[in-house]
Amino acid sequence: MEPEIEAHITRFLAMLDTAFRRRGEDGLPERLRGAVRDVPRHRFVHRFQADRAGPVEDFAAERHLAAVYSDRVLAHFGPDDAALDSTNSQPSYVLWLLHRLGLEPGHRALEIGSGSGWLAAVIGRLVGDGSVVGVEILADLARRSRGDLAALGIANVAIVEGDGSAGHAAGAAYDRAVITAAVWDPPAALFEQVAEGGRLLLPIALAGGAGRDCHVAVLRRDGDRFRALEAVPGRFVRFTGPGQERGAERRRFDELPFWPGIGATPTSRRPLSLGARDPARFAGAAYAFRLFLGQTEPGFTVFDDGAGDDLAASSFGLVDAAAGSVAVCRPGMLLGYGSPEAVRRLDAAYRRWTALGMPGPAAFELEVVRAGQAPKPGRGLWVETRGTSALVWRLASDRLPGRNLRRSCPDDAFVVGSRYEPERRKRDPGTPAPHSGPGRLAS
Question: Model confidence over 400-428: pLDDT tens digits?
């Protein structure tokens, strides 16, 4: 390896080591370090963009090694400069997720959405004499990644061009499976293709999250269901295909058919605890409540109000079309438009959430089941049917009222207003502070 490239890779590994330590690990694990060193990232980068505002360029070692060997997302482009719906994800984050899977030599692994092939190649090194199948729907990327893998002599990774929603039955059953895109309806094929006791890394698209904002879960196949071992927030490109569209919804106010009739002037305005003390911390404080609304309220909506495509910075609330009513949460403020129904429902949801101790993601146990096997909702249990699959959210027994309830809201999510007394509560270690990156949740 050329000395200049070796120097960049050494710096890259040190950067990853630091990032892993920030996430509570003892640094970059040695097996993962060796796999990353053996699979040079620049060999999988061709026409790309390193910064959103930067130029689209063909990779040239003399100009781009520093950008490629940095902890940033790289966007792929075609020869016509059309953006491809695929990226090289932020290395420290995606490698940390990969570490959660516990890949071992001899494993059979499946990656749906293999993109450039870099992560599939890293997995190939980790499984040793095992095998990896990558499924990529974009034909140009599939062909390019096959060529890059062959040039590096990586023979235990096969890239298949096709729709990942069908998985790849020919290579089943898989000990480990990875989906590197935000999924609304988890593919039914995985119930058959992941081995009993096998693990699945699944980014679950959040309602109203523009198809990219996710609850990223590591799940274990347990009979006819997948049970989450842990989960973190994250962002991935959208998983495409039939039944995957709903997670892309984000609505402008003027798209609501009844909006002209209720006008742009709020009919009610009241203080809201989320972001009340520090609006800059709204994202971290609101994450847990957004997740709860998405689980429990069919009218949950994230609004496209010009804040960009970052879910964490967007206002959110409820839409009740039948009542001609909208409720909008903004930092420190709850706004109502039209009839008071949406505000009433959101206020009731907020009361339920606070009564449960303001649970963050760590408070919920998640199962993914076939839609026809979903249980009925009940006390401390919510069901989201998303097509062929359903998400079953259970509030951990120690979080139910009367069960030695642990408070779990963020620091600035205390309740204010005429109906509540201000109160400081303990931060839930599973609810990330804004802009701090993902944090591990309790198993």
Answer: 554 433 333 333 332 222 222 222 233 33
339 is known as an active-site residue? no
Given its phi and psi angles, is residue 83 left (phi above 0), alpha (psi -120 to 50 degrees) or beta? beta
pLDDT attached to residue 212: 73
Q: How far apart are CA 262 and CA 294, in angstroms?
A: 25
Q: Which of 260, 258, 150, 246 is nearest to 206 (CA)?
A: 246
Give the separation between CA 86 and CA 352, rounded to whole angstroms.
Answer: 39
Give tens-digit pLDDT for 344-397. 999 999 889 888 888 877 788 999 999 999 999 988 899 999 999 999 999 876
This prediction's pTM: 0.81
**CA neighbours closer than 13 Å in the CB half-sphere of residue 419:** 9
Q: Which one of the listed residues 89, 145, 314, 389 is annotated catalytic?
A: 89
Q: Count other Cβ atoms within 10 Å, centred on residue 383.
A: 19
